[in-house]
Amino acid sequence: MTATESSLGSSPIYFPRQSAWSSIASSISNAIANGTYTPGQRLPSENSLALEFNVNRHTVRRALAYLYRQGLLKIIQGSGTYVEEFAVDLVINKQASHRQSLALAGLRGGLSVLTSKTLRANATQAKLLKVPVRSSLLMLTILGEAQDRPLHFSERWFPLPRFQKLNDIVRQTGSISAGFRSCGVTHYTRNESRVSAQMPSALVAENLRQPQSRPVLWVESINVDEFGVPIEYASTWFAGDRVKLTLSYND
């Protein structure tokens, strides 16, 4: 071990010598920083890295696991280890749609309807949408993409019969806002958003094209029309490795 004098007294503070795995992690981190490994690039195999650094695979695996926890790498089972790509910074505010959020980030993309069905409101949905329990709701499952990559997967509920036409319009345009306009809602705002991190279900992980072991950001939100009447309740899962969320509720 090595020691250095503490500025608060004469007792030395001991630091361990740099271990083999941390040295490898530092080397790979520097290679990412200087562009030797670029975002999205697949790293050499564990065997190749073990030969390069003259260590065993366990040591390499520990270094890669550390960089994964630091957010520099992503590990895809059966495929390999990749340099993490820079996350899209999406703004969630009172008015911005998915398309507007992407435009602010300098990207193109849209929404696609995966499934649609009519169901009866349960107690939670009825309370949030301020409708009677077991009243009819339109439920859409939607995938939000940018540059052909999934950013978020959502389940959304809309009161019926008010939004009977919304499904067809969203399928045609890829826009919830266009669907609202077709149903007479020209102005709406996000009334509430709750954000938390969680592990995805198999369905969410499959649609986001990520392993189930990687956390996602979950946002529960309610949109209201210009009269304050709830028009949408949404549960949305954002790919944690591709999205940074900025919540802005300034007028």
Give the spatial strand order of the biggest sheet. Answer: 6-7-8-11-10-9
Number of domains: 2
**Helix coverage percent:** 25-40%
- Gyration radius over CA: 24 Å
The total of beta strands comes to 12
Low-confidence stretches: 1-16
- Decide which structural class fits the backbone: alpha+beta
Keywords:
251 residues; alpha+beta; Arc Repressor Mutant, subunit A; Chorismate lyase; 2 domains; six-stranded antiparallel β-sheet; two-stranded antiparallel ribbon; 8 helices; 12 strands; 37% strand; elongated
Question: Could you characterize what this model shows?
Answer:
The chain has helices at residues 20-33, 46-53, 57-69, 98-104, 123-129, 166-173, 176-182, 202-208; strands at residues 2-5, 12-15, 73-76, 80-83, 88-93, 109-120, 136-146, 149-159, 188-198, 216-225, 230-239, 243-248. The protein folds into two domains: 2-83, Arc Repressor Mutant, subunit A, CATH 1.10.10; 88-248, 3-Layer(aba) Sandwich (Chorismate lyase). The strands form four sheets. A six-stranded antiparallel β-sheet has the order 6-7-8-11-10-9. It has a two-stranded antiparallel sheet with strand order 1-2. 26% of the residues are buried. The chain is built from eight helices and twelve strands. α1 (20-33) packs across α3 (57-69), α2 (46-53) packs across α3 (57-69) and α6 (166-173) crosses α7. By secondary structure, it is an alpha+beta fold. β3 and β4 (80-83) form a beta hairpin. Helices cover 28% and strands 37% of the residues. The N and C termini lie far apart (56 Å).
